[in-house]
Specification:
Keywords: Iron, Iron-sulfur, Metal-binding, S-adenosyl-L-methionine. This protein is an alpha/beta fold. It is built from 17 helices and 13 strands.
Length: 473
């Protein structure tokens, strides 16, 4: 669980990034919470460094017994333990912030627009790639990396494409720059720098990537079946996309780095091969290869998927939910990230990572709320990072401020009670935009997804979800 922190006058609101809790506190309690967070490392999820917690407490001039007592409360409340920022650095910066968000984005940086695979569901829309329109390394450093470190103490970064390994030297140059800026400004390397990749050429470059600071990988694999995978991904001739992904996974795991697998589920009959019913075998593959997390995500109808009319039915969503729920039981130690196999509480608003935790920078320097919102209307700022600084964009963008306003009553009564809400839009603004060209569901859409389906209650059997409470304390 990641923490988002919003300042409201003399108080602070701590929000779980996945909206599984909300807490209110004063500045002293917030500092105790930040000291508590300093004892946890996302890459070592079962370890607690109590010495770091007490060291942070002393640095913040907090009574150690008070911090210990508060830490028990944070544990009991199951509050987020992780952040994408240096908690001690952020504590020192508290006086500088006005009302609004005070935590940074996970910056998703498009290091290249080029990719050698032909996935027809890619989230990137069709676009011209003119080399002289690319942002420069200096612009990325001065207007994105340095400001986000200076203002918030940002310690997590994501490198994506295109495919980052198509131009590995440029990717290495960017990774080194981020690591160097972090060391110069925070005295430490980033906690996490991860790459979104097909796995292409990862074993060849992984040593150099690790030296540059890349320590986590999200590797795309559409199917555990080599035939299905290669038909779906359309890799270049003489490149086996299935073997490339598995070799990358093994190379990452063998080095003790973090490996996640990303499986994008396709509608039946949309391609030369299907992968819907490959889910059980994919779960088994992830276990066998010691993958930490498996993301099973139905294709979002944006980018190339929108152009190619890739849309899933309610029945297909239900099948995904059924197989994922079964997989969670059979592989309890594997983290399975899937947005549709758990029910959404009736009072749950649209509140996702777009505008609260994520920020996407394309190769031209345009800024978007997330990778799945990249149409011209989704730009969060009129200028690019060639001229404007990312910390100002993050704090002042009206669209981002709207997206992170947890007080919005943005789901109509009919949508709240709909059994197909998880398949329709869930909590996701990108899905809401893709279906209805709006960022909320404050009124029932005219072209309602549920009314287009043959069976309205088809997801009702998908399994009970844990009760989630939203609480202020």
């Amino acid at each position: 669980m990641y923490a988002i922190i919003i300042k409201e006058a003399a108080e602070y609101v701590i929000i779980d990034a996945y909206y599984k809790g909300r807490w209110r506190c004063d500045e002293k309690a917030l500092k105790a919470y930040l000291a508590y967070m300093s004892g946890f490392d996302r890459l070592k999820p079962n370890a607690v460094d109590e010495k770091s917690i007490l060291k942070s407490a002393r640095r913040m001039n907090l009574d150690e017994n008070y911090v210990i007592e508060m830490s028990r409360s944070f544990d009991n409340e199951n509050m987020p333990r992780y952040g994408n920022f240096d908690p001690v650095y952020l504590a020192d910066k508290l006086p500088q912030f006005n009302d609004g968000i005070i935590t940074p984005p996970n910056s998703i940086i498009e290091v290249t627009p080029y990719c050698n695979y032909g996935c027809s569901w890619c989230y990137i829309p069709p676009r011209n790639k003119v080399r002289n329109e690319f942002y420069s390394l200096e612009q990325l450093r001065d207007n994105v990396v340095a400001p986000l470190i200076n203002t918030f103490g940002a310690v997590e970064w994501c490198l994506t494409g295109g495919e980052p390994t198509v131009n590995p030297e440029e990717t290495l140059e960017i990774a080194r720059m981020i690591s160097n800026e972090s060391e110069d400004r925070l005295g430490r390397r980033p906690n996490r720098m991860y790459m979104l990749t097909t796995g292409f050429r990862i074993p060849e470059y992984i040593d150099r990537f690790e030296e540059a600071g890349i320590n986590s990988y999200q590797i795309s694999l559409s199917s555990p079946d080599p035939v299905h995978e290669n038909l779906l991904r359309k890799a270049p001739r003489r490149v086996d996309s299935h073997a490339a992904a598995l070799n990358a996974i093994d190379a990452v795991v063998d080095r003790g780095l973090q490996a996640e697998v990303n499986m994008i589920i396709q509608p039946q009959g949309a391609h030369e091969a299907d992968n819907l019913y490959d889910i059980p075998e994919m779960i088994q593959l992830a276990v066998e290869h010691n993958v930490r997390m498996l993301r099973i995500i139905p294709a979002v109808p944006c980018g190339q998927a929108k152009e190619n009319n890739i849309l899933m039915s309610a029945y297909e969503y239900a099948e995904v939910a059924r197989m994922v729920a079964d997989g969670r039981k059979k592989a309890p130690n594997l983290i399975i990230d899937c947005p549709i196999d758990q029910r959404i509480e009736k009072d749950r608003s649209l509140f996702c990572r777009a505008g609260t935790l994520w920020l996407y920078f394309d190769f031209r320097g345009n800024v978007y709320p997330c990778n799945n919102l990249q149409e011209p209307e989704n730009r969060v700022w009129p200028n690019t990072i060639k001229t404007d600084k990312a910390d100002k964009i993050w704090l002042d963008s009206p669209l981002l401020q709207f997206m992170r306003d947890y007080r919005n009553d943005d789901v109509a009564e009919q949508c709240q009670s709909c059994s197909l809400r998880a398949a329709c839009a869930g909590e996701c603004r990108a899905m809401t935009w893709a279906r209805y060209r709006t960022y909320d569901l404050s009124s029932k859409p005219k072209d309602c997804f549920a009314e287009q389906q043959d069976v309205i209650s088809i997801l009702s059997h998908s399994g009970a979800a844990s009760k989630v409470s939203i609480r202020d304390s």
